[in-house]
Amino acid sequence: MTRDDFQRYIDAFNNDDFDGFSSFYADDVDFNLGDRKRIVGKQGIVDFYRPVKAHIKEDLRIIDIAVAPDGIGLHVYTKFTTFKDWPDFELWPTMAGDVREIESLVLYKYNADDKFTHIKSARFREC
Questions:
Q1: Which domains does the chain show, CATH number per domain?
Q2: Are 38 and 32 in contact (CB under 8 A)?
Q3: How far is 12 from 42, CA to CA, in rounded Å?
Q4: Sheet containing strand 37-40, strands side by side
Q5: What is the spatial distance between Cα 122 and Cα 124, in angstroms, rounded to a whole number?
Q6: For 2-60, what is each residue's pLDDT tens digit?
Q7: What distance lies between CA 110 and its chain's CA centroid?
Q8: What is the DSSP string of 78-118?
């Protein structure tokens, strides 16, 4: 996987292109949002993000990236803009107009087919 490949993944995610960003996942991908949530499986990630993206615009911007033969280390800025009230969202209650900005560190492992097999995310700080 190249940095350009990874940028296509980020672009698809930012543009709510479910087919595009999920095409980067292995069927049995293991995704950990720190200690907040663990999702196993490509379909599980899509099922999690459909309601998220129906309430919140999530924009990721790469701060720094390191690409290795089997993984990627990412320092990323994320801006969450809520456009539809979601007071019972499992990760945090949010209402239309809320904006949350964070920096995270994320590790991606991928297989020989350039499909993500493991994703581990940790919040670095609130902005």
A1: 3-126 (3.10.450.50)
A2: yes
A3: 15
A4: 37-40, 25-33, 116-126, 99-110, 71-82, 56-68
A5: 6
A6: 999 999 999 999 999 999 999 999 999 999 998 889 999 999 999 999 999 999 999 99
A7: 15
A8: EEEEE-S-BTT-SS--B-TT-EEEEEEEEEEEE-TTS-EEE
Mark residue 45 as left, alpha or beta (left: phi above 0; alpha: psi -120 to 50; beta: remaining).
alpha
Question: What is the number of other CB atoms lying within 10 angstroms of the CB of residue 70?
Answer: 12
Question: 30 — phi, psi (to 5°)?
Answer: -115, 115
> Given the structure tokens 């492992």, which residue do they identify?
109
pLDDT digits (tens, 9 = 90+) for 83-117: 999 999 999 999 999 999 999 999 999 999 999 99
